[in-house]
Amino acid sequence: MNLEIINDDQVLPAEREQWITDLVAYAANRLDLPADTEMSISLITDEKIREINREYRDKDRVTDVISFAIEDDEDSDLPNFDELAAELEIPRNIGDLFIAPNHVREQAKEYEHSFDREFGYTVVHGFLHLNGYDHIEPEDEKVMIKLQEEILDGYGLKR
């Protein structure tokens, strides 16, 4: 897994970036993704995630994670990126996550989880969205949440 972590505002200590990389690699391995699959995670302030949420989702509030999957829209006129990547022999890029660690920290307190558990949940949840999983329909939610818990438990982030 080729993961770029952008932590320009230093909202998390730089040494935590390896932990994120390891968790994403574990999740990617669980989904059997090709080793050269690409994505990015931007660690940003609450103010920045609120701006993104307002601009792209019409929700004027802070949230923990926003995902922008490249292969998100089935009705798009864009080419099938999986097929295009294979044809051109380039890595598949699944998209970008924007995470607000300070908001995740607040949620960890609210849900009485450790920061690691809540942050891991946030990373894996967003990662699964980038890979086409969703929780809008009850049946899809069951599949996504089950897989999410299996990844977190397997990585050692049990409730």
TrEMBL record:
Keywords noted in UniProt: Cytoplasm, Endonuclease, Hydrolase, Metal-binding, Nuclease, Ribosome biogenesis, rRNA processing, Zinc
Protein localization: Cytoplasm
InterPro entries, sorted: MetalPrtase_cat_dom_sf_prd (IPR023091), YbeY (IPR002036), YbeY_CS (IPR020549)
Keyword rRNA processing: yes
UniProt EC number: 3.1.-.-
Binding positions (Zn(2+)): 125, 129, 135
Domain of life: Bacteria
Record's cofactor remark: Binds 1 zinc ion.
Known cofactor(s): Zn(2+)
SUPFAM superfamilies for this protein: Metalloproteases ('zincins'), catalytic domain (SSF55486)
Role noted for this protein: Single strand-specific metallo-endoribonuclease involved in late-stage 70S ribosome quality control and in maturation of the 3' terminus of the 16S rRNA.
UniProt family annotation: Belongs to the endoribonuclease YbeY family.
Name by which UniProt lists this protein: Endoribonuclease YbeY
